[in-house]
Amino acid sequence: MSAKPKKTPDTLRSSRWFGPDDLRSFGHRSRMMQLGYAEEEFRGRPIIGILNTWSDLNSCHGHFPERVKDVKRGVQMAGGFPVEMPSLSVDESFTKPTSMLYRNMLAMEVEETIRSHPLDGVVLMGGCDKTTPGLVMGAITAGVPMIYLPAGPMLRGHYAGKILGSGSDAWKYWDERRAGNISDEEWLGIQGGIARSVGTCMTMGTASTMTAITDALGLTLPGASSIPAADSGHQRMSSECGRRIVDMVWEDLTPDQILTDAAFRNAAIIAMATGCSTNAVVHLIAMARRAGVDLTLDDLDALGRTTPLVANVRPAGKDYLMEDFFYAGGLRALMKQMEERLETSCLTVTGKTIGENLEGAEVYNDDVIRPLSNPVYHEGSLAVLRGNLCPDGAVIKPAACDPAYHVHEGPALVFDSYPEMKAAVNDPDLDVTPDHVMVLRNAGPLGGPGFPEWGMLPIPTALVRQGHRDMLRISDARMSGTSYGACVLHVAPESFVGGPLALLKTGDIVRLDLPNRTLDMLVDEAELERRRADWTPPEPKFQRGWGHMFSKHVTQADKGCDFDYLERGHGEAAGEPEI
Ligand code: FES
Ligand code: MG
């Protein structure tokens, strides 16, 4: 514990529940005794909520029931009192139509769970894509000391002498299967070999991107995001989270002291240097807005132009996976490499600065974590486009697409729904050339609904059989962080609310100019006006329930897709419960 604790047993948040000699506190203490705890076990001690996004259907968090025990051990060693609080397990593998529909539900649940219970600090256990931003967004708003425990990546995939990467190799071998190059037996082998242990996707997909961002923000123990889930170091990290959060409570080290403008800038730089998932854009902006930090698409584009991609991890990198990244020194080593570009005075959950946390960090394999003089790609991972197709922006991952498409002009092939697109793609006689620009609309936050990861539109079978593996694709959807290809995503405003993508017709010429960051349809304004006058809004997707609320309040992609009323500045903060 630091020399001068700011909190005392009497000023702990939980003492409002357990301290007073009144009837309500009698009730709270009596119910703790019903749970089997003596007063000296919980009274006057930091109560640590362990917010655990485990479920039997979250394949990436299968080790969390064990890790909770490690966290509890750490909390108890440091003199705190741990309580496990199950939180919505937003899993990427099974949730339909898309996990993104539920990120904000998790964020709300976390905020309200903390606010309504006697918790002095929290350990947030997540990792599978949306769990990271969901947990962090809710905890930022709740404002108690927090530490993030990342699930860690799974081991490398493996089959028949080949290394397999989550997602990326599924898409790759699926194309080969459609081309007739893979037998049933091989396909089954790949199915069993591509996800071999607990943990999150082991490419630099959304999970690894978001945990790296959380690490760079200073919300995890330094470098924690790189430790493979199956490594015993992951258990030791978990118990250290337990020990550290207790001290953070005494120090009153709250997230607002950590999550400054500079911290978000650091995180964005590190995201670009790692070859981050395009989803980083949406979640970074949403988290920043919760923290009261103004981070925009243009800020991210500017950082993207000047930050080289140095993590040689698939899919943006060519050769390696997260396990290799860990052995090469992990995120601490990468941050050390980038130290001159970071604001190293930012405070972190350790109570020390980023600079102090990076002391002694080293790169052990400079082909995995490249020096700035020999990057994987000269610019960062993401670029933001604007033009008459996307006045509020769109996102592309230049390093992950065939350079032949960086400047491209071709006729649009437009689909209004995923089933329509799927049927066409599977038609071996589809009239399509590699110059065509495939477009899927009604796939955004409201249209999808929920902003699904449909943006890596499959290459039509007709082209796959001719040997083509990339083409320019545009949608208002997201794509998986493990995806790749010339895919323009997050077109804003989305077509479902009348964004200009709604006006595009098959045969219109579309032009992408990546170096100049533009995306346009070459259709004159008078014609677009006519089409706009003819456009009728589609029927809402939901009449009731969560989807109804989601549709009423979700913001567009460029604003982070939080709910308008959850963002900082929407009315007075709820504050603490009064009685
Ligand atoms: Fe959970 Fe990819 S499915 S991280
Ligand atoms: Mg994913």
Automatic annotation (TrEMBL):
Domain Dihydroxy-acid/6-phosphogluconate dehydratase C-terminal: 367-561
A UniProt-annotated Pfam family: ILV_EDD_C
PROSITE patterns documented for this protein: ILVD_EDD_1
SUPFAM superfamilies, sorted: IlvD/EDD N-terminal domain-like, LeuD/IlvD-like
E.C. number(s) listed in UniProt: 4.2.1.25
InterPro entries: Dihydro-acid_dehy_C, DiOHA_6PGluconate_deHydtase_CS, ILV_EDD_C, ILV_EDD_N, IlvD/EDD_N, Sugar_Degrad_Dehydratases
Domain of life: Bacteria
Molecular function via GO: iron-sulfur cluster binding; L-arabinonate dehydratase activity; metal ion binding
Dihydroxy-acid/6-phosphogluconate dehydratase N-terminal domain location: 45-357
Annotated keywords: Iron, Iron-sulfur, Lyase, Metal-binding
Protein family (similarity comment): Belongs to the IlvD/Edd family.
Stored NCBIfam families: PRK06131.1, PRK13016.1, PRK13017.1
Name listed for the protein in its UniProt record: L-arabonate dehydratase
Organism of origin: Palleronia marisminoris
